[in-house]
Specification:
Blueprint: E1 7-10, E2 17-19, H1 32-52, H2 64-75, H3 78-81, H4 87-93, H5 95-101, H6 108-121, H7 126-141, H8 148-165, E3 171-173, E4 182-187, H9 194-207, E5 212-215, H10 224-235, E6 238-239, H11 248-262, E7 267-270, H12 280-296, E8 303-309, H13 315-327, E9 331-335, H14 346-353, E10 357-361, E11 369-371, H15 374-381
Parallel strand pairs: 4-7, 4-8, 5-6, 5-7, 8-9, 9-10
Antiparallel strand pairs: 1-2, 1-3, 10-11
The structure holds guanosine-5'-diphosphate.
Length: about 375
Amino acid sequence: MSVGGHIATMTTTTMTMTMTTTRGVRPTTMTTSTYRRRTRAVHRASVSSSSDGETTATGGGFDLARLARVLKKKTAMDIERVFNGTSKTREKLSAVNDVLALWRMDDFEEALEELEETLLGVDFGPEVALAATDGVRARVELGECSSGKEVREALKESIVDILNAAGDSTSIGLNETEGEPSVVLVVGVNGGGKTTTLGKLSHRFAQSGAKVMMVPGDTFRAAAAEQLATWAERTGAVMSDSPPNTKPGAVCFKAVDEACARGDVDVVLADTSGRLHNNSQLMDELVGVKKSITKRLPSAPHEVLLVLDGTTGLNMLNQARVFSKAVGVTGIILTKLDGTARGGAVVSVVNELGIPVKFVGVGEGMDDLQSFEPVSFVDALFPEEDE
Ligand code: GDP
């Protein structure tokens, strides 16, 4: 995604950080030139993390190098938590292994067909099932694989290719302009885990030293603001406040205005009402929320993150289409992957809409948000037989 050309990219797998720009918090006592020197120092430290994998934080405030370290730590946990639910879950996910255990090259086409059907059964949409088996066919025809084990690897590679083709999962859009916040708008249908995810994101940003402001833009659900305020307290975020009955667009405008006026807020995390994606009136209101944010800060929002409930299977595809069309989603957060076998459906969303998954939710606690890493995700989708 592009936010006025200001993008910081954090690669969690290799721990390399390539960034065009970065910004830090400017303490009130710091002069502009000192601040700029310090910002450059943080940038250098961040880049050096690519060679040794460990970086010492330099400067205060929003330290991107530190954020990268936090992301790396989370990624190590992915396979253990993702889909690590009931035995039924694991049974479903290992259906592909059963097909591959019987793989025979003399029945190649039939075996491929069976594989395609099995992929459909574990919530891959028809297009992904076809693309993935086509990928396997191409590799078999090139003589790159023939045994069930090799075909399994080829299948996993095909799916990783689909996930990678949508762009960098580990980049987050940030506003580089000094004194201005980065604005993250979080959208999705009711009950998907939006508010909880905002809390987890707040914790994640706070761990990196960022000052976060939470915005109760979900004016529809009575308890949402309260729930968000609890998360703000737990994670040390500032809670933006509006008089009762303020429209969501005005709530968000006021919050961004306040964050800009304060000058010390790094990230504004805006909640929105849970939309029924087939309710055009509510979707129009969401478009209005986005416009209000842009009206106050033309480069914002810098990220529009769509929360998709991992337990909904292919239903998430239609939701993603509608939200993407309405508000231009820049990244997906896939929630509730702890204990569901249905997260594979997200590959269809990525394939069709070309939007990368950026985080996954694996529980209700504030540490239960992990960076999305395609290879680990696909490893979790297709667990080894003996695991
Ligand atoms: P919202 O209506 O989209 O804001 O959804 P909420 O944030 O209120 O979440 C709905 C329910 O899902 C709550 O009970 C959350 O605790 C739960 N939830 C959210 N994310 C996760 C997750 O990653 N894993 C699990 N198991 N539960 C989650």
